[in-house]
Amino acid sequence: MTQPDQSGPLLALRDEEWIEDFVAYLRHEQHRSEQTVRAYRSDVRGLLLDIATPDLATKNEAPEPQLGSLTLQDLRAWLAELNRRGVSRATVARKTASVRGFLRWARREGLIDTDPSAKLMTPRKESRLPPTLTTAQTTRILDATAARATSVPQEGQDEGEDQIRAALALRDLAMLELLYASGIRVGELVGMNLSSVDSVDGKVTVIGKGDKERVVPINRPAVNAVTSWTERGRPLLVRAEHTPPDALFLGKRGGRIGVRQVRDVVNDVLAELGDTSARGPHVFRHTAATHLLDGGADLRSVQEILGHSSLQTTQLYTHVSIERLRRGYTQAHPRA
């Protein structure tokens, strides 16, 4: 990349060129997921716009502060402003990590002489246990979804709205069974292809964070649900002009399903449950991990299944299991 004069207008904080160059670096050199790329872009843009606002700039009050004028004091003032707005510690920690990554990149590219974030402390995240479902709640969700998938037409029959709804129910059941059986991330689910599922050996292959491939075992109900979807439901949603031939899960219009659509499906079934405030596809990931540990799976195996790079991340689920055990003990023991 051509290095412009650092005193020139292209180094203005509001200039989007630097953000897009950083995004290209994340995407093509770091192989970050699109979800991570979007978060980093948003976080860095938010920082640069905030710092370019006069009442947040602690050093340079000029209308167009320069990237090279950014200081540690500016970054600390920005973090203080986020806290004042009531932004959660987890979000502040993520934004801090995004900004530190951006400034390290800018220093490497020669866009700034020093990295002002080198001494910036990352706020500690709140230690909150992830929401999970009980075995009974999970069974109710899967049974209710299966009940909606009983009227799929045979080949050659009329493909009316009722049949399309039944096909979507088959898809939803397959997605929910897979999420619970494997603990995969929603981004991994939507990226799966038909060839990702090995129904004979009961396993799926997914591409996780950092483009890392891993193989995850799945149970027989998940295999059966995916088979029913691919054989009976998916053909009803295929549209020649919209459908990627290898996409496993499709939206109503025939294209590859997106993360937002899966989130809507999961939120709907969780809301129908009526006795949980948990929301989002990650609930099934948390639930799968917790139920595996409750059932006696060892921590290393769960780490591999979830695709965690650090065992410390997986250990969080042991606390969930302990808390559940403690609640059961308190309710059942006469002297608790």
Automatic annotation (TrEMBL):
Pfam families: Phage_int_SAM_1, Phage_integrase. Keywords: Cell cycle, Cell division, Chromosome partition, Cytoplasm, DNA integration, DNA recombination, DNA-binding. Residues 128-330 form the Tyr recombinase domain. Residues 13-107 form the Core-binding (CB) domain. It is found in: Cytoplasm. Its main location: cytoplasm. SUPFAM superfamilies: DNA breaking-rejoining enzymes. The active site is at residues 185, 209, 282, 285, 308, 317. Site-specific tyrosine recombinase, which acts by catalyzing the cutting and rejoining of the recombining DNA molecules. The XerC-XerD complex is essential to convert dimers of the bacterial chromosome into monomers to permit their segregation at cell division. It also contributes to the segregational stability of plasmids. Belongs to the 'phage' integrase family. XerC subfamily. Forms a cyclic heterotetrameric complex composed of two molecules of XerC and two molecules of XerD. This is Tyrosine recombinase XerC. It comes from Citricoccus muralis.
